[in-house]
Amino acid sequence: MKIPRSARYRKRVGAFGATDVKRDESVIGFSTAAECYNFDGTSGALREGYGTAEHEFVPDDATRYYMYRYYSEERGEYLDQYVYQCANGLLKYYDPIKQLRLYISGTKYPPMQAINYRLDSKDVLLVSCAGRKLCTWNGTVLKECQSPTITSMALHYERLFVTSADQPTKVFFSDDLDPTNFDISADGGGFIELLDERGALNKVVSFGNYLYIFRDHGISRVTAYGDQREFAVTHLFVTAGRIYPSSIATCGSHIMFLASDGLYRFDGYECSRTLENLDGLILPRDGYSSAYFNGKYYLACAMDFRDGKTVGCEHGEHSVNGLLVVDCTTGEYAVTRGTDITFMNACTYNGDDILVCCDGGRGGVIAHCGKRFDAPLEKRWRGASGDLGAPDITKAVRELYIKSDVDCAVELDDGKKKKRIAVKRGDRRVRVNFNAKRFSLAVETTAAECDVKPPTIVYSGY
């Protein structure tokens, strides 16, 4: 006697998709992530995401770090010297000839920023700190100049343009070919004052042939070549939301920044919203850090994962807990959770390109390592809840075929019940026995490095 058997179906989960937290799960694909962190799914498989690591050229106590490249008469060649700041505000540098780390001065400074420049036929580092005047570093001596107090600065056509918290309606500029001279005159330094509804002037950026002023609620463009009498200002963009200057980074052909209503992409003429599917994940605040490195935009920020869990730095005190990495060519992105990154800067030291960072007060670099220094970061990907194309049929999930090079866990969830299954590394056939009309599938691992292929679901319907 033959016993009828229900038909079995196979559903291969497509390439693991990136996160979409804006749209309802009922309208996004089964393989689109409703939740994903510490995985990089840009290849279609789940691999380790971005984290932080030690580096031989970055001191552990560096909270800020910049490069000073200068010509050494003693060696007869160009040398790289790094200058960095400690948590107590003191500045240090590395002497590549003596091979020692030395103090620059006994003065404690606010968080620093720096730009390389060749002044009077000598290489110097222009150093500024919030609320203080401009300083120059020549490799041995830090010298203060007569300038406005500085919140941001940019070199543009041999002039230094700066914003100042003391006078937030003005952008000051130095004399031509002398960024240390801010004496106001018809053929020397001066300022541009803007008093319209776009608000305070927060950051200056040299991009293309123009200088852009990012303000509380808009962007203004300055045409500033040689003669200051020919400077011209054009207002390009205005928004009711607030632009956060700490998120601004020049990314090749455009500028990326965060505003109170989301992420923006600016091409020098127009602004457009980008990555709207992450609205609600990134908390809109100032005081973040950002950088552009190897074709990608990095934004260290606070994120709301809305799951009540604690990952990495979330077990203790932290100012941010996430890192967004966006490929500026393809638009693909990855989200890291559990890092407390308060500073980033792209550097080249002795021919080695590195993205220096400070994570939880510890100096290091951003790396594709899946760890926070030596501690692996917990990784999770959960797809949207779906019905596999049959909304009225209850799916009896029998088996799961999954290939992974690390031990992991698979979780099925229909909103009322969950089933969690431990999966050993290798090419595995896993028995499931889970019934639901709609359900989601999640993959988790605590391994640092990983490679998990999209699984195949075997089910029958009734």
Structure description:
The chain is an all-beta fold. The chain has two domains: 8-49 and 380-461, Jelly Rolls (Sandwich); 52-375, Methylamine Dehydrogenase, Chain H, CATH 2.130.10.10. It is 0% helix and 51% strand. It has a five-stranded antiparallel beta sheet, with no helix packed on it. β26 (289-293) and β27 (296-301) form a beta hairpin. The two termini are 22 Å apart.
Question: Radius of gyration, rounded?
Answer: 26 Å
Distance between the termini: 22 Å
- Biggest sheet: strands side by side, in what order? 2-35-40-37-38
Secondary-structure-based class equals mainly beta
- Weakly predicted, low-confidence segments: none
CATH hierarchy: architecture of the largest domain: 7 Propeller
CATH topology (fold) name of the largest domain: Methylamine Dehydrogenase, Chain H
Helix count, DSSP H or I runs of 4 or more residues: 0
Number of domains: 2
Q: What characteristic shape results from the CA principal axes?
A: elongated
Largest sheet: 5 strands, antiparallel
The CATH class of the largest domain: Mainly Beta
Could you tell me the strand content as a percent range?
over 45%
Helix content: under 10%
Give the number of DSSP strands.
Answer: 42
In CATH terms, the superfamily of the largest domain is YVTN repeat-like/Quinoprotein amine dehydrogenase
Mean pLDDT across all amino acids? 94
